[in-house]
Known about the structure:
Largest sheet of chain A: 5 strands, mixed
Shape of chain A: elongated
Oligomer: homotetramer
CATH architecture of the largest domain in chain A: 3-Layer(aba) Sandwich
CATH topology of the largest domain in chain A: Rossmann fold
Strand order of the largest sheet of chain A: 3-2-1-4-5
Number of domains of chain A: 2
Number of strands of chain A: 11
Largest interface: A-C, 46 and 47 residues
Strand content of chain A: 15-25%
Structural class of chain A: alpha/beta
Amino acid sequence: MRIGILTSGGDCPGLNAVIRGAVLNGIKSYGHEFVGFRDGWRGVVEGDIVELPRSTVRGISKQGGTIIGTSRTNPFEGENGGPENIQKMMDANGVDAIIAIGGEGTLAAAKRLTDAGLNIVGVPKTIDNDLDATDYTFGFDTAVSIATEAMDRLRTTGESHHRCMVAEVMGRHVGWIALHSGMAAGAHAILIPEQSVTMEQVNEWVLQANERGRAPLIVVAEGWIPEGADEAYSDRGLDAFGRPRLGGIGERLAIDIEQSTGIESRATVLGHIQRGGVPTAFDRTLATRLGMNAVAAVHDHAWGEMVSLRGTTVERVRFEDALGHLKRVPQERYDEASILFG
Amino acid sequence: MRIGILTSGGDCPGLNAVIRGAVLNGIKSYGHEFVGFRDGWRGVVEGDIVELPRSTVRGISKQGGTIIGTSRTNPFEGENGGPENIQKMMDANGVDAIIAIGGEGTLAAAKRLTDAGLNIVGVPKTIDNDLDATDYTFGFDTAVSIATEAMDRLRTTGESHHRCMVAEVMGRHVGWIALHSGMAAGAHAILIPEQSVTMEQVNEWVLQANERGRAPLIVVAEGWIPEGADEAYSDRGLDAFGRPRLGGIGERLAIDIEQSTGIESRATVLGHIQRGGVPTAFDRTLATRLGMNAVAAVHDHAWGEMVSLRGTTVERVRFEDALGHLKRVPQERYDEASILFG
Amino acid sequence: MRIGILTSGGDCPGLNAVIRGAVLNGIKSYGHEFVGFRDGWRGVVEGDIVELPRSTVRGISKQGGTIIGTSRTNPFEGENGGPENIQKMMDANGVDAIIAIGGEGTLAAAKRLTDAGLNIVGVPKTIDNDLDATDYTFGFDTAVSIATEAMDRLRTTGESHHRCMVAEVMGRHVGWIALHSGMAAGAHAILIPEQSVTMEQVNEWVLQANERGRAPLIVVAEGWIPEGADEAYSDRGLDAFGRPRLGGIGERLAIDIEQSTGIESRATVLGHIQRGGVPTAFDRTLATRLGMNAVAAVHDHAWGEMVSLRGTTVERVRFEDALGHLKRVPQERYDEASILFG
Amino acid sequence: MRIGILTSGGDCPGLNAVIRGAVLNGIKSYGHEFVGFRDGWRGVVEGDIVELPRSTVRGISKQGGTIIGTSRTNPFEGENGGPENIQKMMDANGVDAIIAIGGEGTLAAAKRLTDAGLNIVGVPKTIDNDLDATDYTFGFDTAVSIATEAMDRLRTTGESHHRCMVAEVMGRHVGWIALHSGMAAGAHAILIPEQSVTMEQVNEWVLQANERGRAPLIVVAEGWIPEGADEAYSDRGLDAFGRPRLGGIGERLAIDIEQSTGIESRATVLGHIQRGGVPTAFDRTLATRLGMNAVAAVHDHAWGEMVSLRGTTVERVRFEDALGHLKRVPQERYDEASILFG
């Protein structure tokens, strides 16, 4: 078989380990050939293909990003999009099946294409860990590690200056990165989109930590807003391209805390460093296994399925069982974490 | 309640996070008090106790080792050992229950003591990840991370000198650290106690990697010996204290590979650096949760049970269901990994 | 002798290693006693003093921040400020001499106080490395390391998405951190306050890198503005406290690059993570030596002098020879670096 | 011009940054061409050459090892060795000049070849920092960082088990790595080849630290032996190839300390991990500058000179002024460090 691989959506540490795992297992176990579609679905609809012989995946599992590029192209748009055109492209290039590595959007597109008869299996990718039907997604552990290490650094500055430090981490819709990095770093409050919290409560946690002689450390996911506030709360307006500016909530929160508590407060927006660079060992092992298992799924013609971590086992899940709803931080996990607040 | 905590056996990154999680949850959720037994069961049988108010656990979750010390003392030995003496010591110090953090030996002792009527719950601790009834134990992820990072370093030296690099990692009886770090680092062979492999096979993997222009990287768990060899294979004799010298297998293996293949080979024994220092974010979060849940188990009088990670959930398991047999690397996990060898 | 130590101004990795080096050398070589003034000059003018016996400096050289706190208090202000009041406070507390660890402002104050007859020696502290008469200041190497590691991460994201990544680092007045981290990370342009560069030139470097298939990486010190622009260029206005908002130049630059070149661009503001956490080995060794030598300077009654690194040697420099002008990146260092741009 | 580059002797983090700095500066400033000799002098005497266009040095400054390989071949040996043969090889391949990156042996060979009329400039490389006429050599800072981080890890294990931890670091003839990493890690004794110390003194330092409740941390350079001992002291005999086994002194020392003091002691031999992997930012910047300046030296026909760091400046030094004697740790540096022992 000749198998095409694509990586789509935001980049994520571990993508290259998936590619390497797939290519090595495919070549060594089954004698398959591999190609990469450049920049996700863009390479599919445009037939922009690069050969992936064994030598191209040499040593890449510890490399961040994706060697085949990524984009947010929608495979149903444009004159070459849609299942018929894509099947033609596959036929023209001798591609028998596709391994699509991506998040909710990518996998939903993959589902529509498999429903239309295409040979596609999926590998879930979301740095936010918000996909259902999988315990963890690769990249999440790396993001949590980077955020935790950054907070360890912020803490010593906070203690020296008797400041409240606010760390804004990724998470527009779910708070997994905030929850895990906040627990690991010993934060005095963790604020996530799933949980409505008043500013009064936030300030109380800040004051409690301060009264015990600590420099309060507050972790906030980018999608959180205080109870009662509307989205304008963290709005920093649009940039010159009409895109919403990033980094609103952290800075706004630091200002509000300082005004309410009188404790000097500073915000840090971790931003893109959370998603780049060398993946953790955890993510490299997980991603390698997912890539290997994706090839086995192709071999078994398990179209419309994705590979997924359950406990310590890699299993297969049908797209429809994973898609359509975010995996949010459950109430009991937040309750557990919040015992440590203040 | 007044709860005593002990850490026993080899130290492990995350012990302090367990202690902190337990103390904070106990104080904040239930109003409990805490003491620490110094140096594991030694502190129990000798009544060597230190108070653990909230201030003592401040900021310790990122600190390696254990603030209350550890040892390999057996609580059934000595004139003050055994359940009756220990109960007396508890009564004398007003200790209502014990949280015992330790591995197979510690938990087996805890089981015997609970069978004799003592109030004990357990937290599993094994850097080797060899305890059953739990997906992962804290400390394991840190050990794998350190080993992987070390191998990333060894690799560039190997490539520059066209050498075969042998990395010896922990694992006398099981190969989990070798398996995970070897997969993460892209090793050309992983040798673990569970799997019998001939030197011919090892040399073949080395030569295959070499023929592709790679510097072979071999990971070996300390307890592995080649098929057909006896334990004298890696024997470096006894040191001046009559203890078996460490680091036998790695060096012996490098010599044998060099002799058989003609490829210059070097061994590195990672040793104690695998178990010290700052825990990974994964281990800090896991350990914090285990500590918090151990206190809940005490609150529920769940004597004879330990807390355990299953998927993403912390559950309780009876000691007898976790003890008595090592959690070995299963055949399918080794088969999966070995596809990548050579 | 009884010696008081203070740390003043922005915190900096290595402050604790200076304190430890001073205390240990003072106790072991000369039998001195030590106290710390809490929060810099505030502790001096308010007589807020903490004893610093040997046990308080145990293990602190790897700890970021400062165990005695810091602030920006001016010792000449307030009713208890000025040399006479400070001498009274010293007499009242039996303090014979002061070791002042701080930057330009702190050392200038120390100079005025020594001119008035007080017993003070200095240790230069500036994370920006902008003090004259010393090759490097501690903390700078740590800041450069953190910034470099962050850029290594940004780079893989940039390559995967074919974006231009802009990293904003510290440096309001000088570009040392940008220069060193930019060279270490292989940046395609380094923009520093000392050097006037047009946006046309910046865009040309971006396009050159892009044409070679690279994701352009641009490092900008927070104090840079393009040639011809005024300070309003990077102005994001004031926050609710009337303080200028941080992070202006990076975001503005990314927007301008994207508009001019058509290459998608993203900014990351590294912010406070550059100055916290575990110091590098270089900074720990340097800071320890400076602390030890500061005590020797006290012993020699070298009032009005500071300790300083020259090559590999710690020397003494009179305050007046170090103060009064910033150590800027010299033209030849920028010319050297700029060969690598584009 | 067409310039050949070689890397010779033990690998060292930063070699690739030197190569990149040379190639980029040569191409961009002067329009030179570059080739690499594979595996040091072996590539020279065998004419084993690889072209080094700009694309080959892309992104390599953060990569450990050397992309052109290294070996310990002596260019004066063999039938193709010696100045005349090498000049012929250079002529045959159109190579106008050589940049030789290596240590004492490499530079001594380069000196003999330049004395015979060949066009060679040098870049000093020694991870041990033992070359004279340069403040620091690249790779040293990385080795010190890795050793320091390892000791931070060993320390928490030592404290938890109340053990004495012995860390053996590189340094057969000089103790720079031990000195710097030991100061950075806060070691209770640093043992280096330059300094004769009795076992009684070592044991006293161990006991002093122990009495203050610390877990003693002892750093020993591999070339140290106790005063009065002969080389057999740390002899672990020869391996199957007749090579002296590594790791003798650390283990022997731990045994002797335990026997004399009764304190349980453990040794860790850091070995090859000290010289591989990602270089520190300090080493990347230094190595890049050295490579750039080496090309300028070629441009100036500065044959027989090497580039060297003095303070913050890169200067040129004649081979004869740098060679012939080791740069040892001076007495005053050891005295300074030893104040902190015990």
